Amino acid sequence: xxxxxxxxxxxxxxxxxxxxxxxxxxxxxxxxxxxxxxxxxxxxxxxxxxxxxxxxxxxxxxxxxxxxxxxxxxxxxxxxxxxxxxxxxxxxxxxxxxxxxxxxxxxxxxxxxxxxxxxxxxxxxxxxxxxxxxxxxxxxxxxxxxxxxxxxxxxxxxxxxxxxxxxxxxxxxxxxxxxxxxxxxxxxxxxxxxxxxxxxxxxxxxxxxxxxxxxxxxxxxxxxxxxxxxxxxxxxxxxxxxxxxxxxxxxxxxxxxxxxxxxxxxxxxxxxxxxxxxxxxxxxxxxxxxxxxxxxxxxxxxxxxxxxxxxxxxx
Length: 315
Fold this sequence. Notes:
Elements: E1 3-6, E2 11-14, E3 16-19, H1 33-45, E4 50-52, H2 61-69, E5 79-84, E6 86-89, E7 94-97, H3 101-115, E8 120-125, H4 134-146, E9 150-156, H5 160-166, E10 174-176, H6 187-195, E11 199-202, H7 226-229, H8 238-256, H9 260-269, E12 276-280, H10 284-291, H11 300-313
Parallel strand pairs: 3-4, 3-12, 4-5, 5-8, 8-9, 9-10, 10-11, 11-12
Antiparallel strand pairs: 1-2, 6-7
GO cellular component, one term: cytosol
Pfam families: Aldo_ket_red
Domain NADP-dependent oxidoreductase: 16-307
């Protein structure tokens, strides 16, 4: 496993992290609870030291699975990341953004209980809440740090301007934007953050699975599957463009005698502005495959070839 030093947080983080959105069990395909627990433990065994989750992933389900998975692991061997501010709305069947002081205090206690831990390492504002003054949100995070319930402050899906406003009240240690070979619109934001010591935990790092090479034909996902509604990778014209990209990735994977997924992971994590890539795992075999990516690196020529192909395809 490779590691990077997070500057503002002053902590060493594995370049690969466990993402748990899918294991929440809502609109992301079938979930094997026991298999997920074994996969998380296997990732830790292979050197991964960060697990990211959120209470809205299955209304607490993902957090509880993480809590069970880490029960036998010494707490100081792992870093836990979770979030607040995205609350299920039972009337609309959706979520509402609520980053108030009161809700932060409510959600942190729920997450601590679900995770069965005394503290959270990275605590994120999940989405900007335009109805709550950022000073109120950051005040809550500052108090949680003083109480020892959280260690580091994060923001997810924030713009540069929103981060700058938040930092008027409290240092932001990390940010969490989407980033992968097929989602590059936040590269400038991540580079800017890195220059200020705000490291990035990237989500959607495998393009909802399309960069694994598993989907060569349009998949038959269930209606409402988040891979169709939240992302656009399985819709035209992007789907066909990604299939062209996969041909180049196939050639590189063939040279290294590795799965296509490892090409995608190395392309992302070899970027200076990427702190760690959050990747979902559903089995021990999946964990082994992902972690094996860090036994080798792409050459500069291979990265240039991929970058040129991305530009040619307009991805």
